[in-house]
Structure formats: structure tokens, C-alpha cells
Amino acid sequence: MRVDIVTIFPEFFDSPLGCSILGRAQQAGIVQVEHHDLRDYTDDAHRTVDDSPYGGGAGMVMKPEPFFRACADILGGEEAPVVLLTPQGEPFSQQKAAQLAAQERLVLLCGHYEGVDERVREALVTDEISIGDYVLSGGELAALVVIDAVVRLLPGAVGNDQSPVQESFGDGLLEHPHYTRPAEFEGRAVPGVLVEGNHERIRRWRRKESLRRTLQRRPELVGRVELSSEDHELLKEIWQEMSAGM
Ligand code: SAM
Predict the structure, then answer these.
(1) Residue 116 in contact with residue 62, Cβ under 8 Å?
(2) Which neighbouring-strand residues pair with 204?
(3) Which CATH topology does 168-243 take?
(4) Whose CA is nearest to atom 8 of ligand 1?
(5) Could you report the per-residue pLDDT of 117-133, keeping only the tens digit for each?
(6) Which atom of ligand 1 is nearest to the CA of 84?
(7) pTM, two decimal places
């Protein structure tokens, strides 16, 4: 996969893109991430990317021309999703990450100031993504969030290819709790079933705790998942335990 980021702060990406799974995925040739300085696509001596808003008011608006030139240069006529990071976009989700991970190319546009000229959104952008109901100063952090979530879904990016599937939201639920050594820490013991070595009982415990956790923290997700007959049995047990105050 190839990801192109259009930004006025290309240096913002150096450290995060060089670390951990993102760094290794690039070294392994699983993904190629390129950042482009929007100012390279300006045509004045001051490399101006913003201007005051028509109609007046506070703040500056990012000019359309540099974005149009940048996309034309980057894509060279090729088709690819062009994603605008914006608090007004579709809320980002694991499902959206999976949809983007199926693409060969991705272009991410980072806004700043009051945002970008509306004509960029109308004519260039195929997807608008928000990473949450809050306002950041720029699209760079949001772009990194999207890249990280997408790249870890690419085959080979995460050591164990199963793990993105087994993680929270992979099957629509939150993941079960995790424990590692020591078996007891400050009076808190690891659940017995996890140290007994019975794989079927461990699988059932994990499914049940995944359901319990989702029910407690994000009950709306349980209603969206196709539940098996075992899930219904486990949910009944959880309800009984909860009403018994366990
Ligand atoms: N005036 C805009 C509004 O009220 O919708 C907010 C502009 S914000 C200060 C500047 C830039 O940060 C946006 O153009 C966008 O690229 C990015 N941004 C801010 N919050 C974001 C969010 N929640 N998700 C994705 N991008 C965001």
C-alpha cells in the first residue's frame, strides 16, 4: 500500500512513522508512506497556503489551489481515495480502517486554521474522516491515527496476523482482559482458568469476558453483533452473575 500525506508540517511525521509497527511495516515494504509539503505547491514567494475568509470573520482558510496541484502531482491521473481529516467527517471506526486497508493507495489531506476551502471538499475529496468529537489544531494527528489503524490491518504488519481480528472491534466486541506473570500481584490473582491450561475453557472464558466487558462499557455494540447460541448462554450467565452482585 502507498499512503501520501499532504501537510504544512511534514516534519511532524518523522518520529511517529519511524517507530514500532509503522516503522517496521515500511522497512518490510508492506507500506510506503510519503509526506508532501503543501507549500511546495504554492506559486508565490511567501509560499502562501491560507487567506482570509470571504464574508469576514476570525481565522484563516486554506487556499484551494495548492491542494489541487498536490493531488494532481501525487496521483498523476490515478484513482485513489482522497481523505480529508475534518471534525465534520464520518466518525473513524475499525470498519472504516478495514475498508481503507483494502485500497492500494490513499491520500490524506491535513487541514489547519479554520479548515480548507469548501471547493477542495467538493471536487477533490472522496472521504471525510473525524477521529472524534473534539477540535484539533491540525489534521496531522488525525492522519497518524488513521495510518496506524490502517497499516496494522495490512497482511504481515503485525507479527501475529490473527491479532487484529481478535482485538477490540475486530469481531464487533471489546476484547477480553489480559494477564501476564506474576500469577499473583499485590494480593490480586490471575483468574484460575487461565493458568490451568485447558484451551477450550480458556476460549469460553475469553468470549464470556469479552461479552461482559462490552455489555458493561459499550452495551450498544452487543446489539450490533450476530450472537451465537453459546453467546446467548454466556450472556445469560453474565446476567445471573450481575443480578447476584458478582
Ligand atoms: N473550523 C473547523 C470546524 O469548526 O469544523 C475546525 C478546524 S480545525 C482547528 C483545523 C484542522 O484540524 C481541520 O481542518 C482538520 O484537518 C483538523 N481536525 C481538527 N479536529 C479534527 C478531528 N476531530 N478529526 C479530524 N481532523 C480534525
Answers:
(1) yes
(2) none
(3) Trp Operon Repressor; Chain A (1.10.1270)
(4) 137
(5) 999 999 999 999 999 99
(6) 16
(7) 0.94
